[in-house]
Amino acid sequence: MSSEQPLLRLGLAGFTPEQRERLHVLLGQLPLGGGVWRVGPFAEADAWLVSGEKSRLVAADTLKILAGLPTERAVQLDLEEVDRPIAFSLPLCSDDFDPKHTFDLSVPASLSAVLRQFEGWLRPLRSQFVLGGQLIARENELLPGIYHVSHKGQLLAVMDFHEWRIGMLRKADPVDFELAHWDRRPLQAHDIPSHFLRSSLTQLRWIYAQRTERDVLPPRYRSKPVYFRHAPAVPMRWIRDSQLILLRELSQAEGDFDALLQRTGLTPAQLTRDLASLYFAGSITTTPDKAGTAAFEDGEDSLPGQRRNGLQAQPDGPEGQPTPPARKHDLTAPAQLRRK
Questions:
Q1: Which of 9, 19, 251, 314 could form a disulfide with 15 if both were Cys (CB 3.0 to 4.6 A apart)?
Q2: Cα 160 to Cα 43: distance, rounded to the nearest angstrom
């Protein structure tokens, strides 16, 4: 089984151009075998690196991060609502600010250690990536029913293809899933242990399509017109701005790959990744008879530390499988992080 690593996204705030360049150099020097970290939009990131020099406590649990670039805006965070890992560069602006996790830009090992901690917090997400890849690879051989995924006698996941849901052992290592066996079980074996992390099979497929460096878009989506079916049943914060643009365009009129490049302004690589995610969420089709009739409407843009609101659709899942409504909370997010 492949040891493919998921793309993990870092959001940066408050850093000067020189500091950002230093961070990019350090990210390029990370040891092989760990997560593949890429810098991306702050609000869409899996984890945050923040300038300690530009961070100001404006209230007991409210942090303001001053802009580090001329094109950057200040960011304000409610620390009680932060739902992803966050670390601050040294030096800090004040002795009154005592964050739990810090790193030193002048010490490469310091940043590496922080990112390893981030990968530990993101372990459920990394495991879901592995399972999502296996689900897509085994798609043609799986039968309706219940599957137990186990390794060395330990149950790692219960996959229910009737309810299109999954329960996964939170503390399992992603490597365990790579080595695990899938056993088809009777319908009576559908119960998910209470301590397992619950999500949907649609979410697993979405996670893999968004984070793999492989091209998993079916070839017909490069040559045939693409039609909108329905909104993806995933947490709203997972839907990136590029995907919102694409969904709005397709809900107004179908288009082939080349036309969508022109209408959205996306790069071919980004359009390929976004179409693949929407395909595996059952949100698009190349079959006109399966096209949806309702327009796509997204909610207000979220601010960092908040979640987007908006999607209320409860569509059918991929290949006609029923899908539960999108959850209000992102179950792959690590526990809330607090200051010391």
A1: 19
A2: 32
